[in-house]
Design brief:
Elements: E1 2-4, H1 9-19, H2 23-43, E2 51-58, E3 66-71, H3 78-85, H4 109-116, E4 117-125, E5 128-136, E6 143-146, H5 147-151, E7 154-155, E8 161-168, H6 178-187, H7 192-195, E9 201-208, E10 214-220, E11 228-236, E12 243-250, E13 267-271, E14 276-279, E15 295-301, H8 304-309, H9 328-354, H10 362-383, E16 401-403, E17 406-409, E18 415-422, H11 423-429, E19 432-437, E20 443-445, E21 449-451, E22 453-454, E23 462-471, E24 477-484, E25 487-495, E26 515-519, E27 530-533, E28 538-542, H12 562-587, H13 595-620
Parallel strand pairs: 2-9, 13-15, 17-25, 26-28
Antiparallel strand pairs: 1-6, 2-3, 3-8, 4-5, 4-8, 5-6, 5-7, 9-10, 11-12, 12-15, 13-14, 16-18, 18-23, 19-21, 19-24, 20-23, 22-23, 24-25, 27-28
Helix pairs in contact: 1-4, 2-4, 10-12, 10-13, 12-13
Length: 623
């Protein structure tokens, strides 16, 4: 007989799927539940195995059908399973007592099963085994568990522990291949203290169905970065918010960090006595500063446990996404950490700026020049002529503006213009722009309606959009007018043959790609491994990026090795093909129907045509 869970059925599935968005979210809940159970035993002075076993499979396309997790901790009685583990907001981990365990709202087990599909819980306590199944009824959409199964107690000689066996039916749940999945599970910030604990032994068995049920077994471990401790102090938080201990370390190498990515190693982890809640760099004013990426550490807030126990749940993001940074307490915490970090980051920034670049060997310089010549020849052939960069976005725009405002175009050859508007105007007038010509038979825009997008260069200040105009009669003149809501702006256009083209900015030397250089001191402030600087035509390789600095050092040291050659070829090819694809789309007279798809297809096409040519130069060069 099936029995409804004691909770409003309209809420539980919605809550489950906002709490558990992917398989890693579910594993975080199940692993921390097991860890909490082991901690309760250890707090009572009992020895434990500390083992947590995880089994899952992966089919073609990242589909995962089965997840099993097993621990050898306390286990649950029949009464505890029914009245605690299966009741919404029931405290199942001891958090509402003084014990230092993680659970905040008595959630995790139920939400994981319901969000992923359906599952069975099998648990042993004091030689008695009980079990139940949990699912959502397809007709009523009610969350239910098997009451008859739960009543069936079985005597057993097995030791205490719990198995959660989930059949995954949520088609949106996908997992990466083994190496990436292992990295996600190992480095997730909520699991770091568990994965690095000598008291825990987490075993992962990963079955790759696509490769003939190949089974890979491994231990999940995490090691914090190596660094020098530069700050350790117990501080008193402002506004009588209690005490906290802050520890900050400095790494010799730049660490990775992306906002709201739980795998980043840089940053200050915010902890209670028994849980990692968030990374302060998700809120810090320094999170995009390259100098800040050399620092990591923790702040342990002793009174934060009490705040949560007193139901100050506004401090925590309701979907388990970490801290609610808009909360006054969380803002105070972030500002406190920023004040401590500021002198260290400032000093690091100065040191990075002073650091001299190692000289590039002459043989390497010759290879890079030859590579630039090749790239420019390829770009010239692909673009059917000399490359002319689209207009750049200036920072000091305070009204709706067309760049350039006076322009000459060659006969039947599209020219790119740029429309720019400050954010405050877009907020009032919207993003849709209308473009028309007062002489549309002879000079016209290739699009009449489009939408502004946030400027990639100044996303906080400006919105912009490129558009193309074409002239069909030599000597023709027209006024191109752009309308944004109640505002308009115009540009004067004339069709002139090449020899009569008016004065333009002198073409930069070197063409499409002028140089290939290393950004050794993060002076560009780009949090990516390679990028193309449109104003200068330089391909910058970020030598401090974590996946780069293992193989390429200052002065292109390491490029003579096979791994270094492969990496430089990959990075140069990535930057060149992306920019060439973007330029080809921008300068093509045919406007694509789906720009994102067209861009991706264009990148793939460029890579097929040109990556092997880039590799040939680098791999055949005698360094």
């Amino acid at each position: 007989m099936a029995k409804d869970l004691p909770i409003n059925p309209r809420l539980i599935e919605q809550l489950a799927k906002t709490t558990i968005k992917n398989l890693i979210d579910g594993l975080v809940e199940l692993i921390t539940n097991a860890d909490d159970s082991y901690k309760r035993l250890e707090n009572e002075g009992k020895n434990t195995k500390g083992e947590i076993e995880i089994f899952l499979n992966r089919k073609k396309g990242g589909i995962c059908e089965k997840l099993i997790i097993k621990d050898y901790a306390e286990g649950m009685t029949q009464e505890y399973l029914e009245k605690k583990a299966l009741v919404f907001a029931g405290d199942t981990s001891g958090y509402e007592t003084t014990k230092t365990v993680r659970a905040l709202f008595g959630r995790g087990l139920k939400e994981t099963i319901i969000a992923l599909g359906e599952g069975r819980i099998i648990t042993v306590k004091d030689k008695k085994q009980c079990s139940t199944s949990l699912w959502i009824d397809e007709k009523t959409k009610k969350s239910q568990y098997d009451n008859e199964q739960l009543k069936n107690l079985v005597e057993t000689n097995e030791n205490n522990g719990t198995v959660v066996d989930i059949s995954i039916q949520n088609e949106s749940i996908k997992i990466p291949e083994f190496d990436k999945f292992k990295e996600q599970l190992s480095k997730h910030l909520s699991l770091r203290d568990i994965n690095s604990s000598s008291k825990r032994n987490i075993k992962l068995t990963f079955v790759d169905v696509k490769r003939g049920n190949k089974q890979i077994s491994t231990q999940i471990k995490f090691s914090y970065p190596t660094g020098k401790k530069i700050f350790e102090k117990e501080i008193t938080l402002s506004n009588n918010e209690g005490k906290a201990t802050v520890r900050i370390y400095e790494s010799d190498n730049q660490l990775d960090f992306q906002k709201n990515n739980p795998l980043g190693l840089a940053g200050i982890l915010v902890k209670t006595n028994g849980a990692i809640l968030d990374n302060q760099y998700n809120q810090s004013q320094y999170s995009s500063d390259p100098a800040a990426l050399y620092f990591f550490g923790e702040i342990i807030c002793y009174d934060l446990d009490d705040k949560i126990r007193k139901e100050e749940i506004g401090i925590i993001n309701p979907t388990r996404g970490g801290l609610e940074w808009r909360h006054d307490y969380c803002q105070m915490l972030s500002n406190t950490i920023d004040k401590i970090l500021e002198p260290f980051i400032s000093e690091k920034r100065k040191n990075l700026e002073k650091k001299p670049d190692k000289a590039v060997k002459e043989t390497t310089n010759k290879m890079l020049k030859k590579l630039c010549n090749l790239l420019n020849e390829l770009a010239k052939n692909e673009l059917e002529g000399e490359f002319e960069p689209p207009p750049d976005t200036p920072p000091d725009i305070n009204d709706l503006t067309i760049i350039p405002s006076i322009a000459n175009v060659q006969l039947d050859k599209p020219r790119i213009l740029l429309i720019v508007a400050p954010t405050e105007i877009v907020d009032k007038e919207g993003t849709e722009i209308q473009i028309h010509s007062d002489n549309s038979k002879e000079i016209y825009s290739l699009t009449s309606t489009t939408k502004l997008e946030k400027s990639s260069k100044y996303p906080e200040k400006l919105w912009s959009k490129y558009f193309k105009v074409v002239g069909t009669i030599e000597g023709a003149e027209a006024t191109i007018t752009v309308q944004l809501g109640s505002r308009t702006v115009s540009a004067k256009i004339k069709v002139a043959p090449p020899k009569e083209i008016g004065k333009r900015k002198p073409k930069r030397k070197g063409g499409f790609i002028t140089e290939i250089k290393l950004d050794e001191n993060n002076i560009k402030g780009e949090n990516q491994r390679v990028f193309y600087e449109s104003q200068t035509g330089i391909i910058w390789i970020n030598v401090n990026f974590p996946s780069t600095n293992k193989f390429i050092k200052s002065g292109f040291e390491g490029i003579e090795n096979e791994t270094g050659k492969l990496l430089v070829a990959e990075l140069v090819g990535e930057a060149f093909c992306k920019q060439l694809a973007r330029t080809k789309i921008e300068t093509d007279i045919k406007i694509p129907g789906n720009e994102i798809d067209s861009f991706n297809l264009a990148i793939n096409e460029m890579q097929k045509k040109y990556l092997h040519k880039i590799q040939e130069i680098i791999f055949n060069w005698k360094f």
